[in-house]
């Protein structure tokens, strides 16, 4: 996609081609192209419209219904923040008193749009001309042009002194190849630039890869890990006055649940307490998700003890934020191996931070013994969870030669250093 093709898509003919392409998206691409061509759409415009329609279809999982009117690139969509996460972040910024924000490297504008929807005035800078033009179009489509200014340029040269806060989501994929970058020094804008913002400015938020090494987190900065429906999706550094706690795990459902939980006052989220949980609701508007927030220093260690009746498999945001000890304290639980993040307790307590299973059998790992136990229990279907085991679950499933009619959960782990299998059943 180039600027001329984007401009053509924004004409009345382009809009008609996009509408027609949307009706054909998801089917056979050659048939769709032929249908557009036979309806009189020129080949170039038809191809551009079909590409957009396909990207919009894929983007619906990230942005919901608003994806249908957005202009997208493949690379931009892959790197864009999920709507539910961007909205949550924007609400927190707004609640912290942020009224103006510089978005340095705004991509397709998912974060800028969310901030504007939260009432924040945004100055969005993007180095890639086509991406910047698409963001400007997305802002206009959303009716937010009065709140968002999009500039094409180098974000590292922007004077950020006049803004309440700065947001940066550096590119973590190589331009051209789209390959993932794991070394923060290869991010764009570069890591040094980003961490300098965090250290120097009164309020900075930086989105980072969830695999970020804790050793790279600047001092006095809050590091937050976010999961959506149990999938770890991103981490963020909150610097300066925005830092509330050293470590935070935010657990979000993908599906907005505006009527669940007790709504917080408009424009604010209740602060979670260290080491405990808080149900932090965003503004009580349709489309907002209930977030569960666990915080703490991230340096505490959970007690180690025996396997008990219930096993808790903590959410990946809790594990990555190093908040397993805080969760253990809340559940009255312990680890069974100091290096493995499964928790065990005598009571099954409902928690948004972990999945709970009832342990029915504990056995040292032995394929023969496991096979005979599963046969005795008539287990024919197993889900296999593992932490601290090198076994290949699919190979194990084949080796078990299951034949019964009962389901079970198998946990491959270590207990006090010894390879152990736990036979479990889900707790409703
Ligand atoms: C990860 S994406 C941002 C995604 C965005 N937060 C969203 O959710 O839609 C990073 C963007 O930064 C842009 N970028 C990289 N280096 C830049 C620089 N020095 N100045 C401006 N933009 C830059 C890239 O082109 C890319 O579009």
TrEMBL record:
Start and end residues of each Methyltransferase domain: 103-168
The record's keywords, sorted A to Z, are: Methyltransferase, Transferase
Q: Boundaries of each THUMP-like domain copy?
A: 354-426
Has the keyword Heme been applied to this entry? Answer: no
**Matching PANTHER family, A to Z?**
S-ADENOSYLMETHIONINE-DEPENDENT METHYLTRANSFERASE RELATED, TRIMETHYLGUANOSINE SYNTHASE
Q: Which Pfam families match?
A: Methyltransf_25, Thump_like
UniProt keyword annotation of Methyltransferase present:
yes
What biological processes does GO assign it?
Answer: methylation
Molecular function terms from GO: methyltransferase activity
Q: List the residue ranges of the region (Disordered).
A: 252-283
- The protein in question is named Methyltransferase domain-containing protein
Q: Which InterPro entries match?
A: Methyltransf_25 (IPR041698), SAM-dependent_MTases_sf (IPR029063), Thump-like (IPR041497)
Here the segments flagged for biased composition (Low complexity) are 261-272
